[in-house]
Amino acid sequence: MISSGRAVDRTAILAAAQSSGRGRFRRTWVSHHGNLYVSFIFSAPERDARLSYCVAVAVAETIASFGMRPTIKWPNDILVDGNKISGTLIEYSGDFVVVGIGINVNSNPTVDRYRTTKMDNYSETPLSELLNRLMRNLDKWRRADFRAVRARWLEMAACLNRPVKYQGEPAILVGINENGALVLRRDTRYLLVWGDEITV
User: Fold this and answer.
1) Using alpha carbons only, how large is the chain's radius of gyration in Å?
2) Is residue 86 pLDDT above 60, yes or no?
3) Do 170 and 163 form a contact (C-beta atoms < 8 A)?
4) CA distance 123 to 99
5) Could you give the angle at which helices 51-64 and 127-143 cross, rounded to 10 degrees?
6) Distance of CA 194 to the CA centre of its chain
7) CA distance 24 to 196
8) CA 200 – CA 198 distance, rounded (Å)
9) Global confidence as pTM
10) Residues 6+ apart with CB under 8 A from 30
11) Helix axes 51-64 and 146-156, enclosed angle (nearest 10)
12) 3-class SS string, 105-142
């Protein structure tokens, strides 16, 4: 849609399942039937590092509205009881950004790198209601002042004040600044980084 010039701001594309789903670094995203797979197209004439945090808070708040207590693993994976329940991939293309979100609802894949869970383990979750709440929360948090987004992300962060690796060397993730940069501490030095070389 974007490449052909047919893209429109605030478009949602749903998939019942995916045969070639992928996450960050082109990792395979297992996409069985029964879960929510949605890509949103938003106008984005410029890249904005803060968007990832807005989306993470919106997804976490949506899951919390069904009675769960999610946390956010940098940058925007959502965990419940330490198990991954949702992931997001953000990609820019032309004057648009595509925000792809997957939420485990009726099934959760078995993967080698981490443990997973699904919403049905905690609450009955109609897909239509989940999507409605997600869209409302995306609108809310994309419009919010970033100071509110930052504060909420820090409240829900699972990796705050914990070790990460930056450029292969250990550091402590202290927080995020007003522009969306990660604040790391290495010994007595503080570093502002944009996350491409961060491993949690």
Assistant:
1) 17
2) yes
3) yes
4) 25
5) 140
6) 16
7) 10
8) 7
9) 0.90
10) 21, 109, 111
11) 60
12) CCCCCCCCCCCECCHHHCCCCCHHHHHHHHHHHHHHHH
What is the arithmetic mean of pLDDT over 114-135? 94
The helix/strand/coil state of 43 is strand
Structure tokens at 111: 């993967």
Give me the amino acid identity at 9: D
Strand segments (E) across the chain: 11-15, 36-43, 70-73, 77-80, 83-93, 96-103, 163-166, 169-176, 182-186, 189-193, 198-199
What is the structure's pLDDT at 168?
Answer: 85
Q: What pLDDT is attached to residue 197?
A: 66
Domains of the chain as residue ranges with CATH: 11-156 (3.30.930.10), 163-199 (no CATH)
- Structural tokens at position 116: 């997973």
In one letter, which amino acid is 36?
A: L
Q: Which amino acid is at 129?
A: E
- Could you tell me the sign of the dihedral formed by the alpha carbons of 55, 112, 66, 128, in that order? positive
Contact 91, 128 (CB under 8 A): no
Task: Please report the pLDDT score of residue 198 as a whole number.
Answer: 75
pLDDT tens, residue by residue, 9-33 = 999 999 988 766 666 555 666 667 7
